[in-house]
Design brief:
Layout: E1 5-6, E2 12-13, E3 15-17, E4 24-26, H1 39-57
């Protein structure tokens, strides 16, 4: 699995997988690592977590 590393300048370099679909995302020297391909995958993750929380209550 690919891994992004934090450089001496505080920026991330390398690839990290998307938390939803595991597609590799190039970090391109960002200060904060990208964790999702786009906003729709972030929304899907949030909805899945809320659904699991509600299902766990019953």
């Amino acid at each position: 699995m690919a891994q992004a590393r934090r450089g001496d300048d505080g920026r991330y370099h390398g690839d990290l997988p998307c938390r939803w679909c595991d597609a590799l995302l190039d970090q391109k020297g960002r200060r904060r690592p990208r964790r999702y391909c786009g906003p729709w995958h972030r929304t899907k993750t949030y909805a899945a977590n809320i659904g699991a929380l509600i299902a766990g209550m019953f």
